Amino acid sequence: MVNDTIAAISTSLGVGAISIVRISGKDAIRIANSVFKGKNLEEVDSHTINYGHIVDGEEVIDEVLVSVMKSPRTFTTEDVVEINCHGGIATTKKVLELLLLNGCRLAEAGEFTKRAFLNGRIDLVEAESVMDLINSKTDKARKVSINQLGGKISGTIRNFRQDLLELLASIEVNIDYPEYEDIEVITNEKLCSKVKDIKERLNEIVTLSENGRIVVDGIKTVIIGRPNVGKSSILNRMLDYDKAIVTDIEGTTRDIIEGDINVDGILLHLVDTAGIRNTSDTVEKVGVDRSLKELDEADLVVLVLNNNEELNDYDYQLLEKIKDKTAIVAINKCDLDNKLDKNSINNQNIVEINTVDLDGIVALKDKIKELFNLEELDKGDYNYLSNVRQITLAKTALNVLQEVEEGLKRDDPVDLIGIDIKRIWEILGEIIGENYSDELIDQLFSQFCLGK
């Protein structure tokens, strides 16, 4: 399949000024030329744009500009042709259909980027950053993605691997050629110092990456509480428009209502949930069950309590449920008489708010910034590992480094230490794709959009 010439529409289908159909493979230029009326594309210079028409026999399909880019100076390192059509669903699909009839195969999701990776044009971190860049919803997320696409974090990982490789080489030389007098003798003390240095540097990257992951993924913020404490009003105020229905009737919100806001360049994915209580209403009960499920999956829980009422059993149950979560207790309706005893709330992150004043939820936003250190995130260089796969592998490498340190303290044989160091080197290689399984690659690129 890697020898096939592939084609796909690389822009969103819809009405627009232009759309692009991309072709990549050894026959890309020949196939494009077979449906193009204009210059002979097989004779034009590389990286040129050529005016003409796409034709089906005598019928003109569209007036186009065709970019011809010859191997290896292309995204996939193969011959690539991009046909710039007039933006329209029927026209664009017809151009793609002609290419498929003349020898192209429809590209799989992410196959252009997959070929760029397999052909050595980009590594796995850079490949993942392509999709992250497409999906970026904030400027900070864009900065992280473009930083990764530029290869900075990949270079950092390669430096770690080079340090480990030099360590391995020293160990091997000491094992195989102990009689050489001019080689550096590797003692456990020297190994311990070098391993400690690598571990501290890698741990710093992991710590930054765990904080920085929210730059790319955002913060899933679930608003919970019993009925009529003001959850939907808080959602509407934060979104700055009335998305959720607000009434005095308990159980008005029966399903999950969602919306996104940008707080200091970080995406907050807000989830308003059904009021949690015992109910005989079948539909409302389903909503309550969904609310509890959302709570389990949240990055941040905002538990809303009513300042105008005493705490009841449902409130205490919810306070118990959030005790091991990153959570904020928002005491709402502070514009009304106080009947709630704050001293009975076992949570450090308490804010008092209301949804009547324009600035009534400023304290809530400020507490979110404080909890997730959002202001500090903007001061970094965005040199992060940006997804769970990358961070999990880095953490695994850290765990093995910890085992190496413990082995050195026990005075384990140096050849056993070398086996663990090689394992760390291989784990870090998985991050950038120096070693990988076909199943991983297929699964990863299947998540890409068609035409990328």
Main attributes of the structure:
Rossmann fold; 2 domains; single chain; alpha/beta; 452 residues; Gyrase A, domain 2
What's this model, at a glance?
The chain has 452 residues and is an alpha/beta fold. The chain has helices spanning 28-34, 89-101, 111-118, 124-135, 139-149, 152-176, 188-217, 231-239, 282-297, 313-321, 362-371, 374-377, 388-409, 414-432, 438-445; strands at 6-9, 18-24, 36-38, 48-56, 59-69, 80-86, 105-106, 219-224, 257-263, 266-272, 300-306, 327-332, 350-352.
CATH level-3 fold name of the largest domain: Rossmann fold
Rounded to the nearest angstrom, the radius of gyration is 29 Å
CATH class of the largest domain: Alpha Beta
Spatial strand order of the main sheet: 3-4-5-6-2-1-7
- In CATH, the architecture of the largest domain is 3-Layer(aba) Sandwich
Query: Per DSSP, what share of the residues sits in E-state strands of 2 or more residues?
Result: 15-25%
Q: Based on CA inertia axes, which overall geometry fits? A: flat
The SSE string, one letter per element, is EEHEEEEHEHHHHHEHEEHEHEEHHHHH
Q: What's the number of structural domains?
A: 2
Described by strand count, sense and barrel closure, the largest sheet is: 7 strands, mixed
Helicity level, as a percent range?
40-55%
- Please, what is the average pLDDT? 82
Strand tally, please?
A: 13
Low-confidence runs (pLDDT<50, min 5 residues)? Answer: 243-255
Distance between the termini: 17 Å
CATH homologous superfamily title of the largest domain: P-loop containing nucleotide triphosphate hydrolases
Number of helices: 15
Structural class: alpha/beta
